[in-house]
Write a structure and sequence with these properties.
The chain is mainly alpha-helical. The chain has two domains: 378 residues, no CATH class; 46 residues, no CATH class. The strands form two sheets. The chain has a two-stranded parallel ribbon with strand order 1-2. The chain has a two-stranded parallel ribbon with strand order 3-4. Helix 4 crosses helix 9. The chain is globular, with a radius of gyration of 23 Å. 40% of the residues are buried. It holds the Pfam family FA_desaturase. This is Linoleoyl-CoA desaturase. GO terms for molecular function: oxidoreductase activity, acting on paired donors, with oxidation of a pair of donors resulting in the reduction of molecular oxygen to two molecules of water.
């Protein structure tokens, strides 16, 4: 049985689009676009074909899809129970070798459970992909996943902002996550020299970046609103309540229970296993997300076309996304975000259908001469790291512009920060600005 669609080699949009269009390319490798990519009649025809494909899948949903997501949920629950039992039991093993082997098995199984919970279950359920089931908790309104970010905050920053304004600089805040420069449309600053180090920190603590992401977005979005405090206070309260639950569960409750039941060594094996599993989940999630959005040929946009049609929106999703090739298990562990193109054009379609429709989406892209960016995981990850390294260094023009504006802008920014920054005393003043904002509104 074929598990993967036929490979459609990634193409460069440089050769795909003629230079007499209104597309403006600022770099040969990392493309920045503005305006429509196809004439209106072609984009409308493309939209009709994709709409028909979407409707055919949604009309076919039924008991098989319901059983699938329920099996995924059961796998998450039982693998977590077994893994936590193994981590606690590791502390009672008679030899160091058996302790290490049991700990590794428990940690690996807990990492698997957390990845599956985060990707194939949580991400897809909270996108509303299974709301049609009317399940009591496997729906976008009730489900909450096993990370420190509350579902409502993620749904605002991701479901709404990211999927509506995909790859538009200044509108889609997932372009760099306020930390990493990934396009020349983001002005270079000296801190960008540490792009690779910042990326490593981001990857290891990705759930924390996701958790505070919407706080940063909302503070900027509503900065001039008189309702700023009313908007930010419930967000901050919800965030810190979720952090308390997650930290309490993984770092206090389970280690304490294991220690009381089986001894002090079980406390340490449980705590270390939980920390390692969370970091493994964070690294995996970061890698999948960045490989889906920041490869060489992932297009960045400078503005939102006020006359953007549904077809234009589809094209922006296709050009701004990248797929990853792999096995059936690989696709499941990515939450089928290895089919990022299909996910971005059909975010509320149950993700287990993406692999089946992928050849049809490729055929439509080929018909309209649109690039369909796909590649093996290692290849896509190398391109992501290469892109991050590339934008850590300024061009000659960017360096001169920085030198010319450094004095006046730094003085103005320092005064503005001093005037507007929330006042947090004690240890809190050493936290990153977004955390200080969250604490202030809490």
């Amino acid at each position: 049985m074929r598990l993967l669609p036929p490979i459609f080699t990634a193409q460069s949009a440089v050769s795909t689009f003629s230079t007499d269009t209104n597309i403006q390319s600022k770099q040969k490798l990392y493309l920045t676009l503005t305006g429509a990519q196809l004439p209106k009649d072609q984009s409308d025809a493309l939209a009709d074909e994709l709409n028909t494909l979407y409707q055919s899948v949604m009309d076919s949903l039924g008991s098989d899809d319901a059983r699938y997501i329920q099996r995924v949920h059961a796998t998450v629950v039982y693998s977590e129970i077994i893994s936590r039992g193994l981590l606690a039991a590791a502390g009672r093993m008679p030899s160091k070798r058996s302790l290490v082997a049991t700990w590794l098995l428990g940690t690996s199984l807990l990492s698997f459970s957390k990845i599956l919970n985060n990707m194939e279950l949580g991400h897809n359920v909270m996108h509303g992909q299974y709301d049609w089931m009317q399940h009591p908790y496997l729906n976008s309104q009730k489900f909450d996943w096993d990370i420190v970010c509350p579902a409502p905050l993620w749904q605002h920053s991701h479901n709404y902002l990211h999927h509506t304004f995909t790859n538009i600089v200044g509108r889609d805040h997932d372009v760099g996550y306020h930390l990493i420069r990934v396009t020349d449309e983001q002005p270079w600053a000296p801190s960008d020299r540490y792009n690779l180090f910042s990326t490593m920190v981001l990857a290891l603590g990705f759930e924390w970046a996701v958790a505070f992401h919407d706080i940063q977005i909302s503070a900027d979005e509503y900065a001039d609103s008189p309702q700023l405090t009313e908007i930010m206070r419930p967000k901050s309260r919800g965030l810190f309540a979720k952090i308390a639950r997650q930290v309490g569960k993984d770092h206090i409750a389970f280690p304490t229970i294991a220690g009381l039941a089986l001894g002090r060594r079980s406390t340490m094996t449980t705590l270390s296993g939980n920390i390692t599993a969370n970091m493994a989940r964070n690294l995996w999630t970061w890698a999948v997300i960045f490989c889906g959005h920041f490869t060489d040929q992932a297009h960045i946009y400078t503005e939102l076309d006020t006359n953007e049609s549904k077809g234009d929106w589809y094209i922006r999703q296709i050009l701004g996304s990248s797929n990853i090739q792999g096995s059936k298990l690989f696709h499941i562990l990515t939450g089928n975000l290895s089919h990022q193109i299909e996910h971005h054009i059909f975010p509320d379609m149950p993700a287990n259908h993406y692999v089946r429709i992928s050849p049809k989406v490729q055929a439509i892209c080929r018909k309209y001469n649109l690039p369909y960016n796909t590649g093996r995981f290692g290849r896509q990850l190398r391109q992501v790291i290469g892109r991050i390294r590339h934008f850590s260094k300024p061009s000659a023009e960017e360096w001169q512009a920085y030198l010319q504006s450094q004095a006046s802008e730094s003085t103005h920014a320092a005064k503005e920060e001093q005037d507007d920054a929330p006042v947090i005393r004690g240890l809190g003043k050493h936290l990153p600005p977004v955390m200080r904002q969250a604490l202030f509104y809490l």
